[in-house]
C-alpha cells in the first residue's frame, strides 16, 4: 500500500506527520512485535516512527528550497517494513512551501547611465530579484520610489518571470540634475509579504545635444562642364555649438549601399575642411546636374550629425560636334527621276543643349539636290532638277552639319550617289552619209564598209545592233546584194557585183539599241562599184562574122593621107578601161597604110605600088585596163583602077552615129547624171531623218 502525507517546511522536529497505525489498519500494540521500522530512500533521515503511539514524526527541520530547489513540487519517499507477516509499505511526504525567504537582488546597488538627450520612453533594463520560495511565495511585483523623470515598467517573460525596467517619462537635463537616486523594491506574494530592496543610481551623461548645422542646408552651384580636375566646387559652411570633440565636425558623402551615388566618382570631399572638388571630367551630356548629400558628423558620444544638400548644375559648353546619320540612301537613282524624288533620309543630332545643339544641314548649291526638313532633326535629300547620267554618272554628295554654338562646330559626311541609266539617247552614227567603193566581181562575203555608231547610254541601253533596211528605192531588194554584221556594223556583199549593171547602191543602215523601248537611227551608205577591166573592146564597124575579113576597095592611085576606112569599137567598161587605142599588127612586109591610134581611121601612108593588087591588114583595138584586153578585125584592101571616090563619099560605109562618135562624152554625161541623182537622194534621206 502507499501512504501520502504532507508537512510544511517550517515545522519543528517531533511534529506528527501522520497516524501510521490507523492508516495501515493495524493495532498500535502489534507494531513493536511486528518490528515496524522505517527505511528512507534518500541518504538523509528526516523522519522517525513512534512505535508507542503508532505515528510518523518529523526528525529534523525541513528546508524545501534545499531539498527540491525551484521544482514546482517537493516530495520525500519512505518505505515501512513490518514482519510476521513481512509487509512493505510506501510513504510519500509532500514538503509544503512556506514564505520563509525574502526577495533579494543580486547587487544591493545598481548604477545606470543615460544621456541627457534621451527621448521619453527610453527603457533601462534592471536585474531580476531572486526568491527561493515557490508559487505565491515567490516574487509578485516590484515598486520604484517616486520620481519626476522615471517610472517602473514590469514585463512578464514566457516562463512567468517578471522583468523590471525603468522608463524615462520626462526629458533630462544634466546641468540641473546630474544624478538620480531611486529605490527598487521586490515584493513576494506570501503572507505576510516579504520584500527586498536595491539602490538604483542613475547618472545623466552630458550629451552631444547640438548637431552640426549647414548654412544654408540646401545650396546650388553652377559649374561649367569640362573644368579641370581638382577645381573647387564649394566649401561647406557648417557650425556646431558644442565644444571639444562634440564640436569637431567630420564630413562624408551620404550614400546608400543599395544605390551608391554616382557623384562619388566625380567629386571628392575633404573630411576635415568640407571642401568639395572635382576628381574626374564632368560631361553635361551625360548628366546636367548632380545632387550631392553630405553628412556632417561631430565626434561626440553619442555622435550627432547634420546633413547638407548641394545641387551642382553644369553649364553646357559647345564641346560636341554634330553627328550625321544616314538612315537610308536610294542608290542608284534613275536619271529620269522627277524633281522631288527622295534620295536619302538623313538624321542629325548634337549632344549639346540650347543653341549649342541647334543644327542646320548644308549641301553644295551647284548640285541638283536640296534638303527638305521632315521633322525635328530629320531631313530628306530630294532632287531639285533633272538628272543626266550622260553628263554626270554619279555625285559625291557632301552633307555638312553646323551647330549654332560659339564657336561653331561642324562635321560633314560624304557619300556617293550613282545615277542609273535610262534609254533616253538614240544611237548616233558618226556620219549620216558614208561613201564606200568596191571592185566589181568581188567574191560574195567581201567586206565593203564598216559603219560606226555610238550611244551615250550604258549597259543594255548602249548595246547596238545593225540592220539593212529595204526602202524600195531600187528594183531589187538591197538585201539581195548586201548583208551587215549586226554586232560590228560591217557590210558584206551577198553576191558578185557588175559595174556594167549597177554602178552605185544606196544602202540604208539602221542601228538600234537594246533598251526598252528601243531607240534607233539610220544612215545611208553609198556603195560605188569600181569598174574592172572585164570587158574586151567590141568592134562595131566593120561588122564581120568571127573568122571573116572585111573587104575594102580603094583607088590604085590613092595618095598618102587618103582615108581608106575607119574601125569603130566600143568598150562596156568605163574610165581607163574604156579608153581604146588602135594599131596595126606587125606583118612580115611593110604596109603602105597606117591607123590613127585614137580615131581608128585607116589612111594611106605612102604611094601605092601597082604591082600589088591587095593588102591584108589586121587592126587591133586595145583598151587601157590592167590587164589590157583587145579585139581585132581583118581588113582586105583591094586596089582598083576605076575607084576614085573618097571613102566617106564613094563607099557605102555606114556612118557612125553621134552617140558612137562621142561615146566618151556620153559616159561623162552619165556620170554627171548619176551624181545629180545621188545628191537628190541624199537630200530626201536627210529630210526624212
Describe the structure.
- By secondary structure, the protein is mainly β.
- Helix content is 7%, strand content 42%.
- It is built from 6 helices and 49 strands.
- The strands form 15 sheets. The chain has a 4-stranded mixed beta sheet. Strands 8-14-13-10 form a 4-stranded mixed beta sheet, with no helix packed on it. Strands 16-23-22-19 form a 4-stranded mixed beta sheet, with no helix packed on it.
- It is a single-pass type I membrane protein.
N-end to C-end Cα span: 155 Å
Mean residue pLDDT:
85
Query: What is the architecture of the largest domain at the second tier of CATH?
Result: Sandwich
- Silhouette: rod-shaped
Calculate Rg over CA atoms.
76 Å
Quickly count the domains. Answer: 6
Beta-strand share of residues: 35-45%
Main sheet: which strands, in order across? 1-7-6-3
Give the count of helical stretches: 6
What's the CATH C level of the largest domain? Answer: Mainly Beta
Keywords: Calcium, Cell adhesion, Cell membrane, Glycoprotein, Membrane, Repeat, Signal, Transmembrane, Transmembrane helix
Protein name: Protocadherin gamma-C3
Transmembrane segments: 663-687
Membrane topology: Single-pass type I membrane protein
Strand and helix layout:
Elements (H helix, E strand, L loop, with lengths): L1 E7 L7 E4 H5 L5 H4 L3 E4 L6 E4 L4 E4 L5 H5 L6 E8 L4 E10 L12 E7 L7 E3 L13 E6 L5 E7 L5 E7 L10 E10 L6 E11 L7 E2 L3 E7 L7 E4 L2 E2 L9 E5 L13 E3 L5 E4 L10 E10 L6 E11 L7 E7 L3 E2 L7 E8 L9 E4 L6 E7 L2 E6 L10 E10 L6 E11 L7 E2 L3 E7 L7 E4 L2 E2 L9 E5 L13 E3 L5 E4 L10 E10 L6 E11 L7 E4 L7 E7 L7 E4 L1 E3 L10 E4 L8 E3 L5 E4 L9 E9 L7 E11 L6 H4 L7 H4 L1 H26 L1
Parallel strand pairs: 1-7, 8-14, 16-23, 25-31, 33-40, 42-49
Antiparallel strand pairs: 2-5, 3-6, 4-5, 6-7, 9-12, 10-13, 11-12, 13-14, 15-18, 17-21, 19-22, 20-21, 22-23, 24-26, 26-29, 27-30, 28-29, 30-31, 32-35, 34-38, 36-39, 37-38, 39-40, 41-44, 43-47, 45-48, 46-47, 48-49
